[in-house]
What we know:
With 176 residues, this protein is α+β, with helices and mostly antiparallel strands. The chain has a single domain, classed as Sandwich (Immunoglobulin-like). Helices cover 28% and strands 40% of the residues. It has helices spanning 2-26, 126-138, 163-173; strands at residues 30-34, 37-42, 47-52, 56-61, 64-65, 74-80, 85-92, 102-107, 110-117, 120-122, 141-147, 153-159. The protein has a 12-stranded antiparallel sheet, sandwiched between helices. Strand 9 (110-117) and strand 10 form a beta hairpin. The longest helix has 25 residues, at 2-26. The protein is globular.
Amino acid sequence: MISKISRAFGVVALATLGTSAIAQEASSNRVAANTDWSVFVEDNPTECWAVSAPKETVNSRDGQVVSVRRGEILLFVFYRPGAGVNGQVTFTGGYPFAGGSTAELDIGGTTFELFTEGEWAWPATPEDDARIVAAMKRGSAATISARSGRGTVTRDTFSLLGFTAGVEEAANRCSS
């Protein structure tokens, strides 16, 4: 039962975040840039997010590095006060993940499981989000490993330089 509730929460969060990713691609509302992290704010409904693209991406199939075409690869921490979203970690890998698969987020040797659906991955609970954000504030890099629906294994490494300033800026702009 708890897993169904967690999954339902994730699906609701996914629907909420889908609009944010689209908004970021078209948004000119970048309000801050903190080293490798940018902060965006949108109104109506109010939403704020810190976001970064990977510094390194490695794609492999059967243990061999391959060249593949992927869409936007982004790691977000998202705030939407009207929906009760406060610091949700979300990843879009730029491809549909393998059905039923999970992604693994590694921060300084501590790993977290992210559930996947379509092109999105996120933690199971708000408590997991909080643990991940805390680890990201202490870390220097975050690496996400996942598998695409075509069997490609991806490994995306994000710098955490500027993460704390970026996430705090996003949180402050959406607090009320």
